[in-house]
């Protein structure tokens, strides 16, 4: 997914520009550290104190100039309005927090609000339209059938579900003045770990990268990477 994010950042901003980045629910801070090493100013928003502590330990091992580019704030994906003014950031990452939010619509509006004009919003959500694919590939038919039932129950507006489906998010982003720019599939081939052999790992990443851009593969991915740009 890092390649996809870099592609969208390159399309939105001139090369060499130091960007103001907000990483909402940064987890272990893989993206935050990567972007800080690239010269960007990164703010991490994390509600879990244990994860904050782990990230601070990792950050302490970085060179001083990298650590100086990162600020850690206690809070969750629904707390952007409490911490940041409108238009504060050039890039906002929310790679998981939207799926866990109590009110995804309000959370999404808060994420868009803190973006500056022309800013990039990068979201990673579970692909509820294809939940049965992973257990089906693994031969867990009970789980596959349960996932199919869940997909039917939550897929329609009449059921009150579908809030995080691609089509619903596309409409939501347009209504917030941050229309969809591109979307990708992530986790298409059902592996969470890279092969130990470097050449095999490269081929796996290349296959994921290509499939994540094309139909019908991206539509059955485990996750969707959705990118919008603030108008």
From TrEMBL:
Coiled coil: none annotated. InterPro entries: Methyltransf_11, SAM-dependent_MTases_sf. Keywords: Methyltransferase, Transferase. One of its GO terms (biological process) is methylation. CDD domains: AdoMet_MTases. Residues 22-122 form the Methyltransferase type domain. GO terms for molecular function: methyltransferase activity. This is Methyltransferase domain-containing protein. The lineage of its organism: Bacteria, Bacillati, Actinomycetota, Actinomycetes, Kitasatosporales.
């Amino acid at each position: 997914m890092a390649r996809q994010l870099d592609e969208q950042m390159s399309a939105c901003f001139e090369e060499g520009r130091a960007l103001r980045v907000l990483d909402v629910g940064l987890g272990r801070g893989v993206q935050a550290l990567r972007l800080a090493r690239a010269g960007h100013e990164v703010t991490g928003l994390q509600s879990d104190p244990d994860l904050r502590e782990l990230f601070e330990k990792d950050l302490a091992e970085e060179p001083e100039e990298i650590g100086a580019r990162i600020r850690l704030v206690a809070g969750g994906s629904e707390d952007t309005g409490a911490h940041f003014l409108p238009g504060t950031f050039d890039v906002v990452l929310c790679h998981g927090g939207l799926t866990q939010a109590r009110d995804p619509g309000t959370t999404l509006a808060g994420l868009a609000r803190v973006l500056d004009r022309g800013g990039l919003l990068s979201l990673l959500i579970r692909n509820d339209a294809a939940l049965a694919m992973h257990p089906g590939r693994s031969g867990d038919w009970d789980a596959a059938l349960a996932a199919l039932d869940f997909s039917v129950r939550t897929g329609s507006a009449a059921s009150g579900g579908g809030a995080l489906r691609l089509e619903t998010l596309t409409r939501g982003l347009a209504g917030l003045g941050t229309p969809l720019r591109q979307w990708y599939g992530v986790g298409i081939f059902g592996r969470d770990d890279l092969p130990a052999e470097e050449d095999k790992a490269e081929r796996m990443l290349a296959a994921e990268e290509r499939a994540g851009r094309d139909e019908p593969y991206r539509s059955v991915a485990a996750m969707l990477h959705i990118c919008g740009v603030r108008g």
